[in-house]
Design a protein that fits this description.
The chain is of the alpha/beta class and about 300 residues long. It has one domain (about 35-215, about 250-305): Rossmann fold (3-Layer(aba) Sandwich). It contains ten helices and seven strands.
């Protein structure tokens, strides 16, 4: 059995069994080790933070005066913590499921500390705030033994376990709303509600940043498949294969561009990874994908600004 098929079966079963999300966390922690914060993942997320900062600051964004909203906390709140350590006024991160754990936060604080000690952190956090760094030094030894809320609050971060389409924030509250590797996992109906909401809570001329991996994520466990392997299946077949543990909507970047624009979030810049020559042609795509543009682009980032 192909590795990707095995993972698809496991995730499908976990997604329908009682307590499946908890079992998945334990599996990822003790078997696959996926919840252990690797240097590679840490670096990648900090790359996104730096890219986000550079593009938004070029248009006037300033950390110390800003409120920031993240969609999709995940297992490691790397980007929210990077914002906090850079002196951002207020950081809110929202997730439908509470994946964050005290031990994960402890790992995260230790990783920031280790990078700072090694002289590597300044590459990504050139505006490191001294007062926030002192908070990290004081909370690093005890983060594993205190509540998630208490640790985050010390940095000016709030986590909400809720539907991102139904927040309680007032209109125009945030200066920036962003996501990293989240939009590709949300179903089409929910995407419309979430995008409508982030447009509502973003101030006029506020900013958006969304990095979206529109490729088959099973490639992470099975290097023998194409990044577009999932385009071989019909919509009906994919409904049977897809799961609620790590769903993949298979939507293309042109869809997301139109989605943002339809809610008053205008793309100021689009950063797309180049397709691998000939990769899409080597696949037998299902006819459901006939006439769809940009099928062969695996990753894209949208830098947005809300209309006045």
């Amino acid at each position: 059995m192909r590795k990707w098929v095995l993972k698809a079966v496991i995730q499908k079963v976990l997604g329908i069994m009682p307590g499946g999300f908890k079992v998945n966390y334990l599996f990822q922690k003790y078997v696959s080790k996926a919840v252990i914060l690797s240097d590679a993942f840490f670096d990648t997320m900090l790359d996104h933070f730096l890219e986000l900062q550079e593009h938004c600051q070029a248009q006037g964004f300033k950390n110390e005066n800003s409120r920031v909203f993240e969609i999709g906390t995940g297992w490691h709140a790397i980007v929210p913590m990077a914002f906090a350590l850079s002196g951002t006024k207020e950081v809110v991160t929202v997730d439908l499921n509470g994946h964050l754990r005290p031990e994960n936060l402890a790992q995260l604080l230790q990783k920031f500390y280790d990078y700072q000690q090694a002289g590597k952190l300044k590459k990504w956090l050139p505006q490191l705030d001294d007062s926030r760094w002192k908070v990290l030094e004081s909370h690093r030894p005890k983060a594993k033994h205190q509540s998630i809320a208490a640790t985050l609050k010390a940095f000016g971060i709030q986590q909400h376990i809720t539907d991102a389409a139904k927040t309680s924030f007032e209109n125009g509250y945030f200066d920036l709303c962003y996501s990293v590797n989240v939009y590709e996992h949300i179903n089409e109906q929910a995407l419309a509600g979430i995008t409508r909401e982030i447009s509502r809570i973003t101030r006029p001329k506020g900013y958006g940043y969304h990095a979206i991996g529109v490729y088959d994520h099973f490639v992470h466990v099975d290097a023998g498949i194409s990044k577009f392997n999932y385009l071989r299946f019909s919509k009906r077949a994919w409904q049977l294969i897809d799961n609620t543990i790590q769903p993949q909507n298979r939507l293309r970047l042109s869809y997301f561009r139109n989605l943002f624009k339809s809610h008053g979030l205008e793309p100021k810049e689009e950063i797309f990874h180049d397709p691998e020559p000939g990769e899409i042609e080597r696949l037998k795509l299902h006819k459901d994908w006939e006439g769809i543009e940009d099928l062969d682009i695996p990753y894209g980032t949208f830098i947005l600004q809300k209309k006045e």
